[in-house]
Amino acid sequence: TSPIQAVEIGPTTSYISVITQSGKGNVNLYKTSDFLRWSRVSLPTKPTLSPTIKEARNLPAGTLVEVEGVLTVGAGVVDDEAVYLEQGEAGIHVFLRQSSAKLPSATQRQATVTGEISASQTKRIILDSLADLELGGTVSVTAPQITADQTANYLGRSVLLKGTIGNVNTDDVLLGGALKLHFKAAKSVFQLDDQVSVPVVVAWNAA
Question: DSSP code of 160?
Answer without folding.
Answer: E
